[in-house]
What does this fold into?
Amino acid sequence: MVSPTNWARNNIEVYFSNATARRDFRTQLRGNKPIILWSSYLLLLMIIGVIIYSALTSFSDNSLASMQLMLSTFAGTILMLLTVGITLIAPSLTAASIAGERQRKSLDLVLTTPIELKHYLVGKLIASYRYTWMLLLLALPLVSMCVILGGATWIDILYAFIYLSIFGVLFTAIGLLCSVLAPRPISAVVYTYVAVIAYFFLTSLVADYSGMIYGTSAGFTNALNPLVYSFTSGATTPLFGFELPVWIPIAVIVALLTKLLLLGAGSALSGYGSKETKSLRVHCVLYAALGAALGVYSLAWASSPATYYTPYSSSGMSPSAPPNAAIVVPILVILLHWIVPFTACYSRTAERKYQPDGVFSARGILLGTPSGALPFWLLVVLAATLSSAFTLSLFGGAPNFAEFTSKAVWAAGFITFVWSLARWSSSQAYYLTTARGIALLLLVCVLLVPIPILDAISAVQESESIWEIHPLTGGFGSIDSAMNSGLVLVAVGSLIAAAATWNDKRRQSRLRL
Amino acid sequence: MLEVENLRKAYGPLLAVDDISFSLQPGDVFGFIGPNGAGKTTTIRMLTTLLEPTAGTARINGADIWRDPMGVRRQIGYMPDFFGLYDDIKVWEYLDFFAAIYKIPTSERQSVIDNVLELTDLSGKRDSFVQTLSRGMQQRLCLAKCLVHDPMLLLLDEPASGLDPRARAEFKELVLELGRMGKIVIVSSHILPELAAFCSKVGIIERGRMLAFGSVNDIVKQARAGRHVDVRVIGELDGAVDVIKSMPHVLRADVSGPSSFAIEFSGDEQDQAQLLATLIDKGIRVIDFRERKFDLEDVFLQVTTGAVN
It folds into this structure.
């Protein structure tokens, strides 16, 4: 049992007296590198600022309205530029932090000390986050010009800086996770950019959807994408009957995501049955429930007639039950399914936590071993289903249990199918990375390759029925279609998993001979 | 004390370490010898908790590598064969970082850092940047880092590699001093004569198996049972060999050169003297009669096959 005093002391040590952060702080601003980097950054900002200003003034007709529009466009463009700069620079500065230590072979020296991984990773996060703030502070002279010229107010700048510093934490955490997962700094930078681009793509879709429904006054989901912050800065969002400034839910979501990313990094760095892995698994289940609840809540608002007709004054409205709230579960599973191979693949040449330890074990859920992969993902599906049904019953009326059940069965079937592909690839490959690579390749083939073929067939047949054989379609079909598709996927997945087990045993007996 | 019990590390069908067991007492300086790929580094990394064993365990003063890895880490100092130091950091800052990790109170850190710098003869380099240090100094700095928390067990993986002879000699003195301070020191190395000179115990490992373990003298005695004598004569060589072969305790006698032969026999010093006396009595003109001395390198070459995993 941890006493409150110890807990407080430990947290003060982690966040305010962190040895890793202090060491990095000592080295960050030494030598010529930072001077060159910051000078180049300032110079670039100034050049681009001048170019934008010149371009905008050339289009202005010197009328008051035109000048006002030009200056506000100038301010918006500068803030957008700053966002892009932070998005590009912050992750790349972080990405090398742990991968660089690994390459330099200094990581082992740290990992053989009694340092808590939380302590180490938070230290790295703080150290890298300083760069984000350096970028923001250095941009202050240029941003001030926007206020002096009249294109923005100090409040606008303050909101922009709050948003950018919030997203700076998220991008730094993404960079940190990629830095742990990547073997080399250069791969870490590539992984990070891919992850950041994926984040932008995903949140753009959300913002697009959210913007269509809520307009500019609501939907904090709009502001999950940093590029749209200028449209939401200073805005409020209706949440559980309250009007909250948008940056508050964004800060909470970013904090939760950052914790998840740090736990992921800790789990990857730690060994068999570590507390980081246990905590990561528990958080994943909780976040699945939370994500599903937020999704259903958004859908409930979306389907509210009041929301449709008066998108700019949403306070005081009550959402009504959306007809397709259960669709949140398949969407969540589709977003997450690509992580399944990373939890389900195994290899006898790998570390203990990735060694084959059976097919299905509840104990493996918290240990993070391959036998716990399927029960863990089924638990995620269950948590998302129960949470979405519960949220709907709270805010949108009585849920349709048949629909929720069918979507949950489809989600369980799809997860089982993806899991079986990971098992099969593990039974074929010698190394873990090969197994994961094969599993992801199979997944892409199974999901994407049939699309043009099915498209062609449906065009010839002039019927859409052929699409029912695609693994993804069941999740978005009728109750019967989802149920049938789920059961077929469970059956196919079980067969593939049985084949994988048989193949694995045969290979083992051959090796022993 | 350090107890290693049936430690095993398998990568699929490949056994990197196969059932290794040994124990060491405070003050022991243990030389871990083996060809490349024999399993030395894997064993050391398992003892540091960086690698998880497939089976078996190790305990350091009761702290088990499975059950209490943090307890193990508090009691060890690890110096890998290749290690990196941070750029743009001063020597004292580097040590301060590790002292902070080991939760040495801020008020004591200054004196701890000064002490380890003095022990490793780096006091003059306190404010130097680590990247400006020579290889030997960097090795010593890494050792200083291992010592900031006064560990019970020091694991030094190939510490002398890349050092010039002077730095190597200084390093040897330092390790001996640490042994005298009551620490258990495990040193893996390829430079066998050096290990023989300062290790109280050695272990020879090949293909993951511990082939020999004990003090250098015991290992040499075990590996080379009996005495080996080289004899050089003038005149009839075959006659001399026949005379020797007829003597008691002689296991074998083989011609080893145009005028020399080698004797392997199981007798003591008296019997050895009797061999020489008999040869002279029989009129054989002996110009050299010398017992062959074996060292660790001979034993190493004898017990290992040169095969790696």
